[in-house]
Task: structure prediction
Amino acid sequence: MSISLKEAYIIVVEDDPNAQLVALDLLRLGGANRCYSRKSVDAALAFAERLPRVDLFLVDINMPGKSGYDLLRAVRAHDKLKQAKVVAVTAATLPEDVENARQYDFDGFISKPLKMSAFAGQVQDILNGEPVWDWR
Result:
C-alpha cells in the first residue's frame, strides 16, 4: 500500500534538537503535513497512541535511555502501531551498523547528515513500499 507524503503520519524520534529540526523542515518542504517529533522512545510511543494512525517512524539508533532498536521492538509488538514502517536515521554507518539494522528488520536506513535534495524523496519511496538503504 502506498501513501503520499502529504497524507502520511510521520514521527521523527531524535534526541538532538538540531537534527530533529532539519528532518522536520526537509519533510515539510517535501510536502509533509502530518510530521511530528519527539525526543525519546517513550515520548514517541505515548504520542503515537493519540494519533489516528502512524505510517512511519524515522528513528535515531543511538539515543540516551532507549535506542532505536527498543522503539522498533515496541512498535512491532504494539497492536495499533505494528503496521507502521520503522526506518533508522543515524550517523552510525559502519558496515556492521547497517547489517544490524537489517538483522533487526528495520524497514530502511538513511544516514546522517541527511541529503537535503533527496530526503523527502527517500521518505516517499519508503511510504510507497520501496526499500531505501542509504548509508553513503
The helical segments are 17-29, 41-50, 68-77, 95-103, 119-127.
